[in-house]
Request: fold
Amino acid sequence: MDFFKGRTVFIASMHGKEEVIAPLLEKELGMLVLKNKTFDTDQFGTFSGEIERSLSPLDTLRKKCLAGMEHAACDIGIATEGSFGPHPFLFSVPAHEEIMLLIDRKHEWEFVAKTLVTDTNFQGRTLDNEDALRAFADEVQFPSHGILLKDQASNFQLVLKDADSMEELYRQFKQCQEMSGTVYAETDMRAMRNPTRMKVIEQVCHKLLDKLNCPCPNCHSPGFDVVEQLPGLPCSSCQMPTASILVERFACQSCQYSVDKNRRDGRTFEDPMYCSFCNP
Ligand SMILES: [Zn+2]
Ligand SMILES: [Zn+2]
Reply:
């Protein structure tokens, strides 16, 4: 991709994410990666929760990316943000959404890729004793995956982290118990302490690169992508439009060229079950 080749990109990341992102940018786009040594991304909120994030994930990401680009005096920046919690559709299943953003100031481009997965060890609970701690540790794949110990789930005063052995974790558990009486254990979702998340960051990075590889048919700028899904898939019985998606609108950020394409799954009719005329 000639738009990016040979240009310097800054990865606004503190938690080892550049280990998976940098080689992909170098290999796939021919970019020169400026590695972060001093940029403090924790001012935008962290997973250890010391600073609660106050913006939406995409806004946090944009702010982080732009601040990093300014810090590094780079006109391209990349940043990623994870959100963890109950899955939006699957009841009581924990989910991980990772959003990656690339900003190119030279061309005034912004590319976003997202992925939502259930492959996460995200967990948290109050632990009463060392047996419960041992069980929790096994469940969340400690010590390959990190654990945070806090005095309580939210509005906590105390966070102990970075234990890398069961002995150290027991020691932190005792310390937390002595200082506050209760211990709330939570998975550490920072990328360098969570290989499962690291894998998802790699996936979303591939997704972003795939996106950049779709050129605009009009001006050849990268990232010709879906901006809107339009409803109106006709009912197979009465032919009236339903609320289901009929076409996807692809648009270019540079020249505003857009085109509506049929559904990728090839469906041209909706089941009357979802028709508000046939099945009101
Ligand atoms: Zn275009
Ligand atoms: Zn119908």
Notes: Helices lie at 18-29, 57-72, 130-139, 166-180, 195-212.
